[in-house]
Amino acid sequence: MTRPRRPSLPLLDVSRSALQSRPIRKRDPDQPNLPFDPMPQRVEPCLALLKSVVPVGPDWLYEVKWDGYRLAIHIEPKGVSIITRGGHDWTYRFPSIAAAAKDLGVTTAILDGEAVVLDDQGRSDFGALQRSLGGRGGKRISTESILYAFDLLYLDGRDLTRTELAVRRRLLEDLIPEGGNETIRLSEAIELPAEDLLEHACQVGLEGIIAKHRDQPYRSGRTGDWLKIKCVQSESFMVVGYEQSASARGGIGSLLLAGKKGFDWVYVGSVGTGFTRSDAEHLKKTLDQLRTNKPVVPLKGKRFVFAQPTLIVEIEFRGWTHDRNLRHASYKGLREIQDNAAVFDVTDW
To answer: Residue 219 to residues 33, 131, 162: CA-CA distances in angstroms?
Structure first.
């Protein structure tokens, strides 16, 4: 004779009341069916630390260093948001990328990548990207830009930032297969011996390469998990004035540049090449509006026009002279405040 089954008793605490689990997180009303992690409104980006030598070993993955605007693409059921490195909403400025993100077939995701405009050889051209946006402070939308996605921070209810890069890459490759679509593409790993990478990148005219540690989670800031190795140095500097020229196109002979040292500015030389006539005319008009009789750096010159430190420019250069001035400097374009461009720090000099 079998015993009658007794109803199972609930787990009891010492007071003999039934224990009930508490929800770990409050549900997001915008994502009522979310079973795991709420989507963050913003993730501070992981930034690459500048190094002169390519790290070697199986722990490292290598990619092209793209020269554009760092963006986070937030995909949700209610729509797509495009957030700059500085935390500004630029969805309206990259409508093609936003539309392509909607077509990826994913409910929720955060892609980390770089918006670029490519030249005829398939290299990223920062100046062309700036022109597509109408220059610094421009209001144009960029229809020519594409996104090279290189990381996946969130996918369908799961926060991936605590997951190692190798896993995040595999998920990204499933989401954006090789070739991708015309507007959102995978930043593919470079399959070459590490010892040959930089030489190859420089020979084909790339800015450099990025090395990433395969086993690390996604950590914000310059932690050393990501490294950048450049063929040509490129940094952001503050424009503190210009040298007038009657013969130069646009009336500017050169821009006067400064790096930062605490709350002060330190003169680092000038740049007189790389800008077009229209670039020079726009720069002169803007700098004339910022004109000041009190230079922020100790310079004197009959043809110098000094300006309040407001405009940030990206400069390509080949090194430094013995007196700490830029060597073989060339203008690449104006940086946007929303891009959170960091002016070159000379504190350690």
So the answer is: 28, 32, 8
CATH no. for residue 317?
A: 2.40.50.140
Is residue 53 included in any domain, yes or no?
yes
Q: What is the pLDDT of residues 131-179, one digit of tens each?
A: 888 765 556 889 999 999 999 999 999 999 999 999 999 999 999 977 6
Angle at 154 between CA 152 and CA 159, to 5 degrees: 125
The pTM of this model reads 0.71
Q: Mind telling me the catalytic residues? A: 65
Containing domain of residue 254, as a range?
Answer: 233-339
Torsion from C-alpha of 283, 274, 134, 248, nearest 10 degrees: 40
Decide the pairing of beta strands 146-155 and 109-116. antiparallel
Please tell me the distance from the alpha carbon of residue 189 to that of residue 149, in angstroms, as a whole number: 12
Domain identity same for 114 and 194: yes
Percent of all residues in the chain with a pLDDT value above 90, rounded to a whole number: 56
> Which residue, chain included where needed, has tokens 């793209």?
66
- Going 289 to 293 to 295 to 299, the CA torsion angle's sign is positive
